[in-house]
User: Fold Metallo-beta-lactamase domain-containing protein from Tumebacillus flagellatus.
Amino acid sequence: MATADLLTASKHFTLERLADGVYAAIENTGFGAFSNAGFVDLGDRTLVFDSFQTPQAAQDLRAAAEQLTGKPVSILVNSHRHGDHVRGNQVFRDAVILSTELTRELIGQDRARVAQQRDGIHGYHASLPAKVEAAQTEEERRALEMQLSQIGEICETIDTLELTLPTVTFSEQLVIHGTKRRAELFCFGGGHSPSDTFLYLPEEKIVFFADLLFTSGHLAVWEDAREWHRILTRVQEEFAMDVLVPGHGSVGTREDLAKNLRYLEVFLQTIEEGKARGLSEDELQKLPIPEELAGLAYPNNWASSLRVQAVK
Ligand SMILES: [Zn+2]
Assistant:
């Protein structure tokens, strides 16, 4: 947004002021955020939307939120189960942590994964400098250096990471009535993940979508592209909105929502055409990126999304 103020409060993210008391925290790639978050001054209290991948990034987010709103954070929202949105939760242990019932259950299931990662990640981190040295191309070297930095951030706090569960749950909708503004949470089901919540500020026409919206690169379908398309279509039809904050990428507009819908259509159509040609599940999972989506960032998401959707 050309008119918004850009503030840098942390190496992990860049703050973007969207309205009085409403900020997006856009991830700085290569550090401890791994995704976007945000915070909202409700008047009598402050709400934070998502808590990043690492406690140290979450700590900076909390500090920025309290500094800029002048109030303690008393509500944290977890949009969905993925680690890059919830692993900073422990920093907000004294706040009410909100999510859907399903998301809470799924975060709990990831405890085993954290324990597993704790066992393996330090060794992996130690192996990376040699790989950077041995890189064959400049592109490969840059990718490995980025990985080294990101894995280093995870290593910094993995030993003290406590996957902290939401404390209050809802199923489809929750309205928080602040003295200054209202904040509405909606979950229309799951498309990116099994349960995807977004935050709507009706007066400001701002939506924090988390991973229901990507404004850069390939989408990551971890659940069901058809459902994702249904959810975004409903949001497009029913919500007045001007500013759309994605889970990954820079702050966007309604046009980005339309682009995501188109992406999902092309993705689903590619699979349908493959099925019509009689391709096996294995062959469907190897379908190449179609012309229309060529050149987008994060091409690895295409293959991982195919693995999920081809077996639907
Ligand atoms: Zn996600």
In short: The pocket of zinc ion is lined by residues 80, 82, 192-193, 211 (CB under 6 Å). The chain is about 40% helix and 20% strand. The CA atoms of residues 217 and 296 lie 5 Å apart.
